[in-house]
Design goal:
This protein is of the alpha/beta class and 537 residues long. The chain is built from 16 helices and 20 strands. The chain has two domains: 270 residues, Rossmann fold (3-Layer(aba) Sandwich); 196 residues, 3-Layer(aba) Sandwich (Rossmann fold). It binds adenosine-5'-diphosphate. Adenosine-5'-diphosphate binds next to helix 1, strand 15, strand 16 and helix 11.
């Protein structure tokens, strides 16, 4: 049970600025277009997965393109960053709490806005505990959207666009079209919704509607209703001006019954406004020449530090690091241990993997059966298989740095970050050809014929890809990788090709700006047409 449930309205921590107008910390360039990004996790404040990496890196990248970027998220337990810049009561469906607004700079002028409401956010975990998701999650995330939008309106300098992420922010576009449609500051504001993982749709009992200040007229098939319940994500998809998802391939896949999770029809109805924009990676945080978690720096010209990382990694896992061990290929996995990530394929190969001439290091948390499987393998093969169950950022870096091969056999993968980190660290990915994995990893065997095909003259091949989602196909790709590992020259060429890929955020941010500009342009044109229409009457 969350500790704060039912507690009296908590006061925001820090001084109370209500006695004077909220200071506007906007950068001097007041005319810059601005985006209010809303999401449930942002690096370095709160993270359970790739969404946090994206929301930590996108605002600074937009800032570099001349956009004023603010990302709003809950001030969860343990987050102490930020200075209180405003505080006021926020009401959602009769539930009123004082919200504190803490700002803290990200890189450049970009900033995070941490919404403080201990009753909702001062809890053990982000979304729920082992017993299940927090039952008031609809309120927790509706409150976030409302607080962020009302904060923007109070400032007087409303954003040019709102950019909502995943179901947790799905109600932001809905509120803009309903509750705030006639609001003097927020009315008519364009919005974009980004889907990071369609498997999570924010589906709740329909009787939440009044508690979210949403009318029953929204309980229809073309609004929020979803099989007798309501879906925050569906609301966002249908009310946002544009929808993006995190890779071009995934944008196609989610329109099919196989990978549409019941949303394929809804998404097909909006296909004209749906785009796939590949995530970038934070190239400062994931940078082998400057990675504090590696024992020695390395780069594309001199990979010798990677050997040090491998030895450190073997030692960290208590695997044999002397004699022949460092020469044996080392396969790394950093992942949530769930079916989506291909752990069912791994489980089916539980007798085959240990027979390969390779060592394995695994880091992750997830379903007990997969945690147990890896723990059992590590106990059985203590010199060659290591499993660490937990979330450990520094170890994730060391695995990317020290492994030779990164295994990512996801059943579906909207974008995936680890395969990109791997390539940047000269760690060759073995992936299933799906979503962002298909968009970012080029198969060694299928690389365009060219000088050396995979040898030093070939710049396209960056890894090993399997197409059929089956244990045999995964084993085949992994075996191909292990075979090539023995050919030092070709292997080195593959590493170099991966390390030279450009996965920077600047490229992705430019595409978001294009979508922002289109959404803003369309809204302006609509507003123009409406006011002309009125004038003609
Ligand atoms: P997803 O968001 O579906 O989990 P991604 O590949 O997009 O998958 O992003 C996962 C992110 O979370 C990466 O930054 C990865 O390194 C990190 N990660 C996942 N599990 C762990 C873990 N157990 N310890 C440290 N980092 C982890």
């Amino acid at each position: 049970m969350p500790k704060q449930e039912g507690a009296p309205a908590a006061q925001p921590r820090g001084r109370d600025p209500r006695s004077r107008p909220a200071p506007d910390k906007a950068p001097p360039s007041g005319k810059r277009p601005s985006t209010l990004i809303i999401g449930s996790e942002v690096q370095p404040f709160a993270k359970t997965g790739g969404l946090a990496d994206v929301l930590g890196a996108l605002p600074p990248a937009l800032d570099r393109l001349g956009w004023d970027a603010t990302v709003a998220l809950p001030r969860y337990r343990g987050v102490t960053a930020g200075a209180l810049v405003d505080a006021f009561p926020v009401t959602v469906g009769g539930y009123t709490r004082d919200a504190g607004f803490f700002e803290t700079p990200l890189a450049g002028h970009a900033r995070a806005l941490l919404v403080d409401c201990p009753d909702l956010y001062d809890r053990e975990a982000l979304y729920g505990v082992d017993a299940g998701d927090y039952p008031d999650n609809p309120r927790r995330y509706a409150f976030l959207a409302r607080a962020a939008l009302e904060f923007a309106a109070r400032r007087g300098t409303v954003p040019s666009i709102v950019h909502a992420h995943d179901w947790q922010a799905g109600l932001a576009p809905v509120y803009l079209r309903t509750l705030y449609a006639a609001h003097p500051m927020l009315g008519g504001m364009p919005s974009v919704l980004t889907i990071h993982n369609l498997a999570y749709q924010g589906v709740f009992a329909a009787d939440w509607l009044p508690a979210l200040d949403l009318g029953w007229e929204l309980f229809t098939i073309d609004r929020l209703e979803y099989w007798g319940r309501i879906s925050f994500l569906k609301g966002g998809v249908l009310e946002a001006d544009f929808i993006t998802t995190v890779s071009p391939r995934y944008a196609e896949e989610i329109q099919t019954p196989e990978l549409g999770f019941g949303f394929d029809g809804i998404l097909r109805s909006r296909r004209a406004d749906l785009r796939g924009i590949l995530n970038g990676i934070d190239t400062r945080e994931w940078d082998p020449p400057h990675d504090p978690f590696l024992p020695a720096p390395f780069d594309v010209k001199d990979l010798s530090g990677k050997r040090d990382a491998k030895i450190a990694l073997l030692k960290r896992y208590g695997l044999a690091a002397d004699t022949g061990a460092p020469a044996r290929p080392l396969v790394g996995i950093v992942s949530r241990m769930i079916d989506q990530k291909g752990f069912d394929l791994i489980a089916a190969l539980v007798d085959d993997l240990p027979r390969l001439d390779a060592s394995f290091v695994v880091l992750g948390t997830g379903e007990a059966r997969y945690q147990d499987l890896w723990k059992a393998l590590a106990a059985r093969y203590p010199d060659r298989i290591g499993a660490h169950i937990g979330f450990d950022e520094s170890l994730a870096h060391l695995i990317e740095g020290g492994a030779d091969i990164f295994l990512m056999p996801s059943r579906f993968e909207p974008c995936g970050l680890n395969q990109m980190y791997s390539m940047r660290y000269g760690t060759v990915p073995v992936v299933h050809a799906v979503g962002g994995l298909a968009d970012t990893v080029h198969d060694y065997g299928l690389a365009a014929p060219g000088p050396g095909n995979g040898g030093p003259g070939d710049s396209r091949a960056t890894g090993f890809v399997f197409h059929e989602y089956s244990p045999a196909a995964m084993l085949g790709a992994l075996t191909r990788a292990l075979t090539l590992f023995a050919d030092g020259r070709r292997w080195h060429a593959l590493q170099v090709a991966g390390m030279q890929q450009d996965f920077s955020w600047d490229r992705s941010a430019r595409e978001y700006v294009k979508i922002y500009e289109r959404a803003i342009g369309q809204r302006a044109a609509k507003a123009d047409a409406t006011s002309k229409g009125k004038g003609d009457k």
